[in-house]
Amino acid sequence: MRINAGASAHPQTLTNTSPAVPLPDLTTAQLLGWILVALFLQSSVGIGVAIWRRPRRTAEAEPAATPPAGSASNAAWAATREFRVTSRAYEDAARSQCSFYLQPVDGQPLPDFRPGQFLTFFLQVMDDPRHGERRPVTRCYSLSDAPAPDHYRVSIKRVPPPSDRPDLAPGVSSNHFHDHVQVGDVLQVKAPSGHFYIDPDPNLPAVLVAGGIGITPMMSMLRWCLARQPERNVYLYYGLRQGNEHAFKSQLEELASVHPRFKLHVVYSRPAAEDVQGRDFQHAGHVDLALLQRTLLHGRHQFYICGPAAMMESLVPALAEWGVPDADVHFEAFGPAYVRKAVPAITAARAEATSEVTLEVQFKRSGRTLTWDGREANLLDFAERHGVAVDSGCRSGSCGSCETRQLAGSVDYAQRPDCDPTPGHCLLCVGRPVSALVLDA
How far is CA 36 from CA 33, 39, 91, 173, in A? Predict the structure, then answer.
């Protein structure tokens, strides 16, 4: 039996010069057996060819699954990771706000992060340059750009002494960054974290409200939205005093010019003589509810607010009075935890109730048993007043430096801290006791 494996749609073009091979005499059963064997072999070859031709599932041939928009990667590192400063750039005319570009020393790709989150830095700050003495300081700074696989960016404003108290010291970490952190320096950094980040739902218009250096997490949210969700309606209300403090001015104006769904509203409270309304800023005064009501379209919006205490204390309650649901208002006040924030009535009532009772707080390792009478805003202030040494950093529930093991009792928070404490532990800088308490400190 002869199998013509080279059959064609045009047999007339084929020639066969091979001599004919006589077939042996076969019975019907034998012939049927040979036919079945031939069919089996042909089927096997076909399957083998099909398997060989199927594209292999490799990282090059098929894109990796994209994580949910705005989610953090599970590849974020534990403890700290070394980052090298690769560039510095001032973002305002006054040169008071400087961006630092950071790349991982190990050269490995960076995990994604949620736009709006922050990095925690473990610094060695020089107290007295004459003696070269340094002390550890922990601080958190918002990421100010969209996620990228090869670098992070933070933008830090130099904090001078208070205008009414020039005798006080300027900001320790911000001045350290501006004066001492240079290109080539290596910093110890914790992975991105924090609960203040944008909802990835593209159908929800995002209203970003920034006051002063509160613009930094908004830049991260804005750039992410415009890159990933160009059809999403995004509004930015940026309040500051005058033009020389206007950070990211050219960047914001360029983004507004090329993205029709991005509406930019810059508000100067004290315009300088050279600041021109309509060119440098759109509104005079402050970012308040009246401005939002006048410039926003009707319908549901999600609000993201970051700024100084005065902005938070006026705008957040005003939005609630306007009827905006709590779930649609997200905010972050920069500065220490004692900045007053709007809190749910039930939480405020619980905090007030605990301030009227006395509780026993035991610091076991220090051998101190003290009476909590509600005078302090948090357990960290309470410990420091009584001379109990506790590590601390940001003092706003972000860095986790003051995390302490609870051996007994309960601790409450007026608001959910950005750093999620380890089970069985609490954050002293934002926590208050609600029962007798034993701490491993």
Answer: 5, 5, 79, 83
**pTM of the complete model:** 0.75
- DSSP category for residue 291: H
pLDDT tens digits along 103-139 = 999 999 999 999 999 999 999 997 665 666 788 999 9
36: helix, strand or coil: helix
Q: Rounded to whole angstroms, how far apart are CA atoms 194 and 248? A: 23
Contact 378, 430 (CB under 8 A): yes
Cβ atoms < 10 Å from Cβ of 151: 15
Closest CA to 333 of 355, 356, 357, 314: 314
- DSSP label at 11? G
Q: Report d(CA 48, CA 153) in Å as an integer.
A: 52
Closest CA to 358 of 375, 383, 381: 375
Contact 236, 208 (CB under 8 A): yes
**More confident call, 346 vs 178:** 178
Contact indicator for 334, 214 with CB cutoff of 8 Å: yes
Q: Both tokens of residue 101?
A: 């570009």
Q: How many angstroms separate the CA atoms of 135 and 130, rounded?
A: 14
Structure tokens at 178: 């501006």
Distance CA 195, CA 201 (A): 16
Q: Are 188 and 121 in contact (CB under 8 A)?
A: yes
The CA distance from 184 to 189, in Å, is 15
* Burial class of residue 55 in the structure, from the number of CB atoms within 10 Å of its CB (0-12 exposed, 13-18 middle, 19+ buried): exposed
What is the distance, to the nearest Å, from the Cα of residue 211 to the centroid of all Cα atoms in its chain?
18
| pLDDT at residue 393, as a whole number | 82
Residue in the block written with tokens 């995990």: 111
- Per 3-state DSSP, what percentage of the chain is helix, strand, and coil (rounded to 5)? 25, 25, 50
Query: How far apart are alpha carbons 201 and 402 in whole angstroms?
Result: 34
